[in-house]
Design a protein that fits this description.
Number of strands: 0
Structural class: mainly alpha
Helix content: 55-70%
Number of domains: 1
Order of helices and strands: HHHHHHHH
Number of helices: 8
């Protein structure tokens, strides 16, 4: 008996859109008014500094701290690891917040990561939304 594997074909039935925007729009519908307020994007993206990494890349982190704090390397080396990690985490969080802010602005999203009304109109999604959703998005954009 010769069993053949059936051929499976996938067809893309979606219009090409910016996946990030699509995900954010879906998030608005699911989460609602809380969207963007309790996101942990900065925390999620920054917690790469773990004890093992701190030990493995100690010299690199010490040099980075020396630049950030404008202190001599010898002084940095005297600091406790926990203190160094805390300072690096705070610095990296602030830098990531700046980057995310630019990212959102470039895409036409609010500071909370919600697509602005003008953005949704520009890409042609606004007309597909019902009035309740339009009102909700407008409110979440502070308009």
């Amino acid at each position: 008996m010769n069993l053949q594997t059936p051929e499976i074909k996938f067809f893309d039935t979606h219009f090409p859109t910016n996946r990030n925007l699509e995900t954010n729009v879906k998030g608005i519908f699911v989460v609602g008014d809380g969207t963007g307020k309790s996101r942990g994007i900065v925390g999620e993206g920054i917690y790469g500094i773990i004890a093992a990494q701190g030990i493995a890349e100690k010299d690199y982190h010490d040099q980075q701290l020396s630049i950030i704090l404008n202190k001599p390397l010898a002084e940095i080396k005297k600091m406790k690891t926990a203190e160094k990690r805390e300072i690096l985490m705070k610095y990296r969080k602030e830098e990531l917040k700046k980057l995310i802010s630019v990212y959102y602005a470039e895409r036409g999203w609010s500071s909370a990561g919600i697509p602005k009304v003008d953005t949704l109109k520009q890409i042609g999604l606004w007309n597909f939304l019902n009035e309740e959703t339009k009102t909700r998005i407008t409110k979440m954009n502070g308009q």
